[in-house]
Amino acid sequence: VQLQASGGGLVQAGGSLRLSCAASGRSFSDYYMGWFRQAPGKDRDFVAGISWSGGSTYYADSVRGRFTISRDNAKNTVFLQMNSLKPEDTAVYYCAAGTSLGGILNHQVLYWGKGTLVTVSS
């Protein structure tokens, strides 16, 4: 599976962005999907995960209530809608594919996409 994230950019605090991750290769709907982020000088952190059907989602405490993960299996795409952005959300965002939601939560990822930079100005 090849993953390509897009949609990053510069936004003011309080604003919104929608990230997309397009998948190609093996059947997209077979995989649980997740979003991670890595700020400069910090480790890569889990942000959100979604089950293969889209029926189950999980969020990091820092983004719960502000970010929404979703997927469109017909379009082989997973999304991350980010609202009420804060400067501390500034990071490179990565999408990832795995075989379980719990696995993704624990960084047990089969495939990583290239990141997309999100910068939130104060």
Q: What does this molecule look like?
A:
The protein has 122 residues and is mainly beta. 4% of the residues lie in helices and 51% in strands.
Write a concise synopsis of the structure shown.
This protein is mainly beta and 122 residues long. Helix content is 4%, strand content 51%.
What labels describe this entry?
4% helix; seven-stranded mixed beta sheet; 122 residues; 51% strand; four-stranded antiparallel beta sheet; mainly beta; 1 helix
Quote the beta fraction.
over 45%
The chain-level structural class is: mainly beta
Main sheet characteristics: 7 strands, mixed
Low-confidence stretches: none
- Number of DSSP-assigned strands: 11
Write the topology of this structure:
Layout: E1 2-6, E2 9-12, E3 17-24, E4 32-38, E5 44-50, E6 57-59, E7 67-72, E8 77-82, E9 91-98, H1 101-105, E10 111-112, E11 116-121
Parallel strand pairs: 2-11
Antiparallel strand pairs: 1-3, 3-8, 4-5, 4-9, 5-6, 7-8, 9-10, 9-11
